[in-house]
Amino acid sequence: MHAVSDELFREAKEVIPGGVNSPVRAFAAVGGNPRFIRSAQGPYLYDVDGNQYLDFIGSWGPMLLGHNHPLIRQAVLKAAESGLSFGTATQAEVEMAQLICSIVPSVEMVRMVNSGTEAVMSAVRAARGFTGRDKIVKFEGCYHGHSDCMLVRAGSGLMTGGVPDSAGVPAGCAADTLTAPYNDLEAVDRLLEENPGQIAAIILEPVAANMGVVLPEPGFLAGLRQRCDQIGALLIFDEVITGFRLGLGGAQEYYGVRPDLTTFGKIIGAGMPVGAYGGRREVMEVIAPVGRVYQAGTLSGNPVAMAAGLCQLRYLKEHPEIYTHTAALGDAFRQGMGELLCRYGVPAQVTGVGSLACVFFTGEPVKNYAGAKTSDTEAFARYFNYMLEHGVHFAPSQFEAVFFSGAHTPEQIGRVLELAEDFFAER
Ligand code: HOZ
User: Fold this and answer.
1) Ligand 1 centre from 23 Cα, in Å?
2) For residue 202, which of 47, 115, 137, 190 is within the disulfide window of CB 3.0 to 4.6 Å?
3) Of 70, 63, 114, which Cα lies nearest the Cα of 306?
4) Any idea which residues carry the catalytic annotation?
5) Which helix (H) or strand (E) holds 142?
6) 402-403 and 261-264 strand pairing
7) CA 225, CA 234: separation in Å to the nearest integer?
């Protein structure tokens, strides 16, 4: 049933570390081999063995309209006819910046980059340059890409691998990253007291979606805003996952808290490699060539990527029903799954908001990294593999999100819940 994938994985491991170009794609935490995908359409992935999967990874976020949306495909093909990369200024970059600034009120200026990692790395540098301070506060289990100073107590693949700190990060660099448990303002206060005048920024995912999905408790985001104002530090929201997803204006609009800087990622590129960071004009003007914080990139604002992203963001702006549709799917999943867990006495929690969800296999409520880590990852692996064998592809880790898209239907969510019921009834 997956012989071709298995053979490709065997070959891949000879020439690619772990056989994958990003650790989250490996099946190390769930057993078995990754499926090698040949194509994707709407809500489905198709693998090299001819299997079809109902996909809830959505390329880790950008596929809010589903895979291979015809308008985005046309925009990419049209842009490609004019050339793939110029390394010079283009009109599309201006239109993209204007569009983002018009959608996200906290963003007065924005710089395009090529990934969420780059966006965060650059935003942190801007915050340091603006404040003249070195230390950053981040939260355990939040993942902000793989730049050195963010690989401290990190979520996503590091949490899945059980090693939250990466080798190869200089101790001096890690020492400037202070960590607190998510949702814990008292721990933040202790860090601020211990490091007076030294904190450049507090960075977080306003909805943590790389340790499973953990919501901010009431007052947490506003409390961080208030503390940043008190100490003259910047508040950075990493909206790589929530941006343009939790609503057009992202988590900052949803929760009504305005950061100084925001990082965005792949959703802007609709599947092309894109990231961006933006925020208050006076902060962004520290960036070269205006200011002395250097940040650059040949492929930044790439014309094909801009065409894809402009098409997706404009479509989202013109079709607010995408948000009501995907939130309704998320609600149906969360409610239906919650009822099943209750009916079958499964010690698990369903979390999430809007088009993001997670089933944590733990009896504990999950409000931070420590809570997420109480999950029974073997139970998750059994659930994951059962669903995969029945044509539903979730992310291969307890500590990732379920992504819903405009291409999913209520009937498909119903089918997922039927399968989940079969699984829970059999165990
Ligand atoms: N934030 C994504 C997963 N949690 C990143 C995907 C990747 O690392 O490949």
Assistant:
1) 8
2) 137
3) 114
4) 143, 238, 266
5) none
6) unpaired
7) 9
